[in-house]
Amino acid sequence: MVTYYDDRSVQVTSTAIRVDGRTFPLAEISMVWHRRGSRSWRVLAGRGAIGAAMAGPLVAAVLGVGLAIWLDRSATVTTAIVGASVLVGLAVGPVADFLFERLDRSYARGSRQLEIWARWRGRPVQLLRTGDALRFGQIYRAVQRAVEQAHPARPRG
């Protein structure tokens, strides 16, 4: 038996697909397909919040420099305002790596619910529904490989 994918809730082998305790023998599966759900506005809003968090200190620094120039105070006050603004702008540095990592993970997970369906014993059955695009891709490719091996294409003649 060959294992194509295995995690805590999904196992794809050369004989069956097991999802959350349900088993679907490959011999009883005739077709596999996937569907994409609608976008999750919550995920998109989270990405926007991460972008705002990265841009916030930089915008504050630019506004501070503009304010220092607009106030037209003494050189000491202007220098203090510009210095404080630059320090606020530099605050984004240490936080940027963390935020970029969160943003990257957000895109890896995706913003849609993804479903894997199969024709099992002649009727459509939803095998899996997940919002994790990376995991979905790994499982879907494993299911495709398993089904291809279980039902090899016959040459036309």
TrEMBL record:
The chain crosses the membrane at residues 44-71, 77-100. Pfam families: DUF6232. Keywords: Membrane, Transmembrane, Transmembrane helix. InterPro entries: DUF6232 (IPR045629). It comes from the Bacteria. This is Uncharacterized protein.
